[in-house]
Prior knowledge:
By secondary structure, the chain is an alpha+beta fold. The protein has helices at about 5-15, 35-45, 50-55, 125-130, 135, 155, and strands at about 55-65, 75-85, 85-95, 100-105, 110-115, 160-170, 170-180, 190-194.
Amino acid sequence: MISYHRTVAAMLSLVGISLGMLGAGLAxxxxxxxxxxxxxxxxxxxxxxxxEGIQSRSARGLGRFEVVVGGxxxxxxxxxxxxxxxxxxxxxxxxxxxxxxxxxxxxGEECYVGNIAPGVRSQLGDxxxxxxxxxxxxxxxxxxSTAWPLADIEERRPKLDYRGLKKIDGQELLELRYxxxxxxxxxxxxxxxx
Length: 194
């Protein structure tokens, strides 16, 4: 059985979305408060005046869906990501007979997930349909999103727990556990920073 927090991490990585980055020069010592890690992360994105001046973001690239449990294989296709304030849209076109596209949209109040066939969602789409708190919280899209919750922890008030260095795929990364104040069920989200 796969734990919930691993399922979330795997699903987010399926669409190739980075959950966080830090600039070079970050001390990798284990002694740090969660708020210090978040502050350094935000400074790596840009100074506060620059970050506050950004009203919307968009990105285009290649989306990739990869089967990592229960088989193997992948699909790729053009992807676009748009965000404005807390609104969000992710679109990936696979053009495959059984999995044509993925569409996840948040209009600021409701989360909408597209079907891959009449009345049928993909496994990824079904996950975000059932657990739309992750989209509403701004976690899907990571730093690409104007709704990135680490940029607004005073308003969101998540429970943050700095866990120190972790080795992931041979790379030492800093781990920050994120728990939503409202919603999110029993999920724990692990964010990794270099």
